[in-house]
Amino acid sequence: SSDTTPLLNGSSQDRMFETMAVEIEQLLGKLTGINDKMAEYTNSAGVPSLNAALMHTLQRHRDILQDYTHEFHKTKANFLAIRERENLLGSVRKDIESYKSGSGVNNRRTELFLKEHEHLRNSDRLIEETISIAMATKENMTSQRGMLKSIQSKMNTLANRFPAVNSLIQRINLRKRRDSLILGGVIGVCTILLLLYAFH
């Protein structure tokens, strides 16, 4: 009635099956002998050879014997297949139960521990990679900050130098203007003197 209950229980049913098979084979052997005797009787000289009812009866008995033999061998093969299947399923069930109850559970736990250890190693590797990336980023930011400080100092230096340059340029422009005025005055005086000399 249940899937877990085997169809064939114990060696007693196997012995019963073997006993019944032997008995049926003996009965089939006796029936075969009777059919052979019937065939000998119909082929004897004292029996009319044209008796259709007798031949029909003999053929009918042969057909019945053949059907019985065929059904017996078919049933025996089915029973042996079922018994082999039950033995195979029983061994599989025993293996599963032993795996669950004994070393199978330990192997499962060991496998789970190994997987957890592998996950932890992967996490450590990822953390180390993240830390190395953070350190490289920190070094890059430090170098960039140094570059920005140097640029800022250069800009401050240039800004401090610009007033001196402006004052120098203003002094140069003042000297140019003074030189231009002096040169213009000298040219004007020389022109006036030349005109005065020409008219006198």
From TrEMBL:
<dbReference type="GO" id="GO:0005797">
    <property type="term" value="C:Golgi medial cisterna"/>
</dbReference>
<dbReference type="GO" id="GO:0005484">
    <property type="term" value="F:SNAP receptor activity"/>
</dbReference>
<comment type="similarity">
    <text>Belongs to the GOSR1 family.</text>
</comment>
<dbReference type="GO" id="GO:0005801">
    <property type="term" value="C:cis-Golgi network"/>
</dbReference>
<keyword id="KW-0812">Transmembrane</keyword>
<feature type="transmembrane region" description="Helical">
    <location>
        <begin position="181"/>
        <end position="199"/>
    </location>
</feature>
<keyword id="KW-0472">Membrane</keyword>
<dbReference type="GO" id="GO:0048219">
    <property type="term" value="P:inter-Golgi cisterna vesicle-mediated transport"/>
</dbReference>
<comment type="function">
    <text>Involved in transport from the ER to the Golgi apparatus as well as in intra-Golgi transport. It belongs to a super-family of proteins called t-SNAREs or soluble NSF (N-ethylmaleimide-sensitive factor) attachment protein receptor. May play a protective role against hydrogen peroxide induced cytotoxicity under glutathione depleted conditions in neuronal cells by regulating the intracellular ROS levels via inhibition of p38 MAPK (MAPK11, MAPK12, MAPK13 and MAPK14). Participates in docking and fusion stage of ER to cis-Golgi transport.</text>
</comment>
<protein>
    <recommendedName>
        <fullName>Golgi SNAP receptor complex member 1</fullName>
    </recommendedName>
</protein>
<dbReference type="GO" id="GO:0006906">
    <property type="term" value="P:vesicle fusion"/>
</dbReference>
<dbReference type="GO" id="GO:0031201">
    <property type="term" value="C:SNARE complex"/>
</dbReference>
<keyword id="KW-0813">Transport</keyword>
<keyword id="KW-0653">Protein transport</keyword>
<dbReference type="GO" id="GO:0015031">
    <property type="term" value="P:protein transport"/>
</dbReference>
<dbReference type="GO" id="GO:0000139">
    <property type="term" value="C:Golgi membrane"/>
</dbReference>
<dbReference type="Pfam" id="PF12352">
    <property type="entry name" value="V-SNARE_C"/>
</dbReference>
<dbReference type="GO" id="GO:0006888">
    <property type="term" value="P:endoplasmic reticulum to Golgi vesicle-mediated transport"/>
</dbReference>
<dbReference type="InterPro" id="IPR023601">
    <property type="entry name" value="Golgi_SNAP_su1"/>
</dbReference>
<keyword id="KW-1133">Transmembrane helix</keyword>
<keyword id="KW-0333">Golgi apparatus</keyword>
